[in-house]
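Sequence, structure tokens quoted for completeness.
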Amino acid sequence: MNKRGIETLVGLFVLLGMLGLVFLALKAANLTTFGTGKGYSITARFDNIGGLKARSPIRSAGVTVGRVTSIKLDPKTFQGVVAMEIDAEVVFPKDSSAKILTAGLLGDQYIGIEPGPSEENLAAGGTIKQTQSAVVLENLIGQLVTSKAGEAGSTGGAPK
């Protein structure tokens, strides 16, 4: 192989490496699916959204059915208002509930929607009324430490 052929192969290899890095960056930023916007928008209010971010997935029964489009703070109720885009082919009942869940022990957070028994469907622009906020690990640890400290204080610190 001549020098020009080797240089061409090396250039092609570098280009493929750069494309691979771009793909990994898009995957890490959760931007690999460029939706066409063929869906409907709904909102939900949460007391604490934890580490939920825009473009986080929305799942039902483990299947991704949409994405979070924006997160804002309501200045009157001080709740997080999460706007979501749901795929057009998926229609949830009006009394569905939404929870902020974590993928794995320390994974990314997503919204899980559980359908309710209602015959009426949630319309575009509708709001999910029943929500459960994110579980914050620091709060759980704080509650555990406080309860154990309270138990130790009530027994005078003596072992049982």
